[in-house]
Design brief:
Layout (H helix, E strand, L loop, with lengths): L3 H4 L4 H4 L4 E8 L2 E6 L2 E7 L1 H4 L13 E5 L6 E6 L5 E5 L7 E6 L3 E7 L6 H14 L2 E7 L8 H10 L4 E4 L20 E5 L6 H9 L23 E5 L5 E4 L12 H7 L1 H4 L19 H8 L4 H18 L1 H29 L1
Parallel strand pairs: 3-5, 8-9, 8-11, 9-10, 11-13
Antiparallel strand pairs: 1-2, 1-4, 1-12, 2-3, 4-5, 6-7, 12-13
Helix pairs in contact: 4-7, 10-11
Length: 348
Amino acid sequence: MKNILIEYGCPAALAEKGNLARITAVHKERYGIVSETGEGFAKLKSSVYYNGGAEPFPTVGDYVEIQPNPLGDSLVTRTLPRQSFFSRPDVFLATWEQAVAANFDYVFIVMSLNQNFNLRRLERYLTSAWQSGGLPVVVLTKLDLCEDPAPFICEAERIAAGAAVCAVSALTGEGLDKLGEYLKPQKTIVFLGSSGVGKSSLTNALAGEELMKVNAIREEDARGRHTTTHRQLLRLPNGVLVIDTPGMRELGMWDVSEGLGEAFTDVETFLGRCRFTDCTHQNEPGCAVRAAIASGKLSESRWASYQQLKREALYSEDKGEFLRQRQAKHKAIARMVRQRKKDRRAKY
């Protein structure tokens, strides 16, 4: 008998160890799971996860060790190491990391070809995707509603260096064949995108049947309510695994040093080339960043996005260090202003 865990993406060597499960849904303190005996539910073992327990709380996609209970909810006793995961600062304690999805192969960054298309948001999503350990794929939806998708595709390709960009229509099926290389049995895809971009419609199109409810969007701003009400992992009829979670639309920047490097390779090319090692990239002579902006090799908006995401990441990781750096920056600007005033007075 084939272990159902393998069908849910678990490596065969791991699945054969027994007493293992994959988290398929998160309902507050109760978890949907799939194990070698099939689907079921589980709760966390209090002595392991609460009261100072060291185990990270599991999330959808996680592999966990369990104590099976054929008469009720099993007990989760351990969260296995993750190969990839998305996290965000905890809602109540920003210095705590909260995982929202784990152990996925691809990240489908979903944006629609209407008012939702936003390059700054795409930069944010790409940074998180590269940091996660999954391979990002930009999926531009609602192709059937766009008269000229070429400009959108070109802009996305310019921002998403190293990631594929595919324009698709869940309604007509146009472009879905371009996603074929990622739609493999036992591979896990996580969707990242805001409300109203068509993630549920895309899931249904990939499945070939209606698995998820589709909500209408407001015509005036192309926004909609998020269809998913809890974190869940779905297995499509073709064996592909899809993770959708309402938390994925509100990811904060949490330790994205590697992700920033991948998403902003064009920006980081100029870092470290300034005349002064402590260059603030304001008005210092010999600043490689300012020179690149002046020559058109780097856009001001791109540089601003990079700085904003880096500030957010620093703030989430270390509020104290963020405030110290902000204070130092303000002092440097104040010194520069005072020096300019002195130079101006000296001229007269």
